[in-house]
Amino acid sequence: MLDFVLRRLAGLAMTLAAASVVVFLAMEVLPGDPAEVMLGTNARPDTVAALRQQMGLNRPAFDRYVEWTTGMLHGEFGTSYTYSTSVRELVAERVQVSLPLALLALALTTLIAIPVGAIAAARRNSAADLGIMGATQIGISVPNFWFAMLLVLLFSITLRWLPAGGFPGWAAGPWPALRALVLPAVALALPQASILARVMRSSLLETLSDDYVRTARAKGLSAGQALRRHALRNALIPVLTIMGLQFSFLLAGTIIIENVFYLPGLGRLVFQAINQRDVIVVKSVVMLLVASVILVNFVVDLAYAVVDPRLRKRR
Amino acid sequence: MLTRRTFVTGSVVVASTLSALPAWAAARKDVIVGVRLEPPHLDPTAGAAAAIGEIVYANVFEGLTRIDRNAGVKPALAEKWDISADGKTYVFTLRKGATFHDGAPFTAEAVKFSYDRARAADSVNPQKALFEPIESVDVVDANTVKVTLKRPTGLFLWNMGMPAAVILSPASAADAKTKPIGTGPFKFERWSKGTSLELTRNPNYWGPAIKLDKATFKVIGDSQASFAALMAGDVDAFPIYPAPEVLDQFRADPRFKVVVGNTEGKTIMAMNNGRKPFDDIRVRRAISMAVDRKAVIDGAMYGIAKPIGSHFAPQDPGYVDLTGKYPYDIAKAKALLKEAGVAEGTKMKLVLPPPEYARRSGEIIASQLKKVGIEAEIVPMEWAQWLSDVFKQKNYDLTIISHVEPLDLDIYARDDYYFDYKSQAYRALMAELSVTLDQAKRLELYGKAQTMLADDAVNVFLFLLPKSGVWNAKLKGLWENVPIPCNDLTEVAWED
Known about the structure:
Helix content of chain B: 25-40%
Strand content of chain B: 15-25%
CATH class of the largest domain in chain B: Alpha Beta
Low-confidence stretches of chain A: none
InterPro entries (chain B): Peptide/Ni-bd, SBP_5, SBP_5_dom, TAT_signal
CATH topology of the largest domain in chain B: Dipeptide-binding Protein, domain 3
CATH superfamily of the largest domain in chain A: MetI-like
Largest sheet of chain A: none
Number of helices of chain B: 13
Largest interface: A-B, 52 and 46 residues
Mean pLDDT of chain A: 87
Oligomer: heterodimer
Family (chain B): Belongs to the bacterial solute-binding protein 5 family.
Radius of gyration of chain B: 26 Å
Keywords (chain B): Signal
Protein name (chain B): ABC transporter substrate-binding protein
Structural class of chain A: mainly alpha
Shape of chain A: globular
Pfam families (chain B): SBP_bac_5
CATH topology of the largest domain in chain A: MetI-like fold
């Protein structure tokens, strides 16, 4: 197990190093200049030059790369060109929205998908199964921003139960903050739950036809008992893989939903920073996201080992 | 004993009384304003983003003069001024009793500091050019400042009322990006990045008392979300509402007021005058005739924009109506193109920056140009790349953009500007204008300049960018027009 963990950690470090080079180079070749964006169309060339100097953009690329990466190793991510605030502070503010939102959406996804997928598999070809398959097909096809607008129309404009968007911050207490996250979490969870339920169903169907399940039935377990005691656990491996991917997506890929609900999440931070060529923010946030995706994959790998003890012993 | 009946009746009475007393029974003292873009920071003397002025101008920061809702120049931190006969010396008498939000007194020193900072060699002021005519700034006494100019400057008082010319305190200027400290009626309270900004009333304000205790700006970039936020009552006003297509829905709803006003945004399709074939005036005139302005306004702007025929806003004094200069005429346009040797099917690169007005107008104009045999290839481009590729490197044929600076005829006299117009006659005219102080003479020169630009068909002049605002019908005092980027809340109040 230790060997397994160490190998994974070495891979993790190498991936991060490679990602840092790619991210840095991508930002270098991106046309556009933060000083130009900040000073707009009426600026004199000497003013732009003065600002470039102030921002340290005139230094050689290699020096800036070394400074950036060593800074990150020390936990220092630099200062945003446009916001004049440390990137760490900016990210910390956004994570307070993005992380709870991702967790809430993932919890909803799991709570819906696993039982629904299991029911569909257990009652294969029944009316319930067909209904679930149809509903999940719709869930996957409906664009989530459109679904989000419907939610707003119903719950915010007509019923006025929940806010139409925005985020009051956790300082205002957990209840208003959670209220603000409910609709976006539902909008995010619907397509994810539909995907996951289908994965759950097919994975479970596959294990249910395995020999050991037949053996379990032969020794006298009911279909339900065999499913709960033997098949379910084994069917979870592909489900965990998909969940890992979904969590990474929910953490960083929610920009459209963040826009619909004007939530100050990580996705919008990066989007805004790209538009303003706030390259230091883009680089550092992208690196953090790469690191978190790698970390999530690492945790998923460990979870495989928990679900399936055979994976622990394999070298 | 409480019988069931009295209990029921009682609760019905209580409930109906409660519902008869709306939350705003006592006139509200706060307002929530929706803004489309979040400012990068809050120092208007260090960034060009309109979103900065839309929060802090007139609310947090003030200049010696200020621009009012009708685009007039009014005294602000300067009570009055005397201008020497040669137009080169301005003596400003400053407002007594004004203080910065951190308690520091407002004095002549702060004025000298702010102006010197803006025109210094290492200045990062986005409008540094406004300060270029200044020769020196001298403190006469604590309440008097003398500004000496290198030459008479017609727009000097207007320029000093712009957001980039507000007065900062020497003690707090360095942190103004994140902690703006000004002299205005509102103090900066907090900024939850990505969500909202809060201002509160400054109890020590020198001027007339404002009616609000608190103002919150909510950042809502998405058109659908801004619609939902207004409908759900999450914001009270969207002074610059992004989606003209839903205005009718608000008009039909008595809770809202829809106000369509002007900006100073001259929206043009710029032509790269330095590049072939646009260096030929016949080609520029042909393209001007090939564009059906009315169809663009109806199609891209839902009919609410005013057409322009030169680089000048119709509401500004000195305007000359030149919209009839190049009437829509395909046959004539084709003939001119043929004469200039532009072959049928010639390709042109039409670069479109992100704003909706540009993208929508561009689609329509591209199809119009097809009718005269020009294949306009649409290239959508994000803002930073547009600034670098088009604005700086002039790597384009055609582009659509709105010039929002007021009275900016001088951009056509600049060296190396992106549309590369090189007319010595026009430059001479601008040189004369900049030193002319007599108002009647100035207006005459404005007229000449407009006519010259239209004659030369420098660009295709499309329309004045409209400003449509939607706000709660009970909210009074917001500006109808936006001569400069701002949301002045000093006169905003709730009607009982």
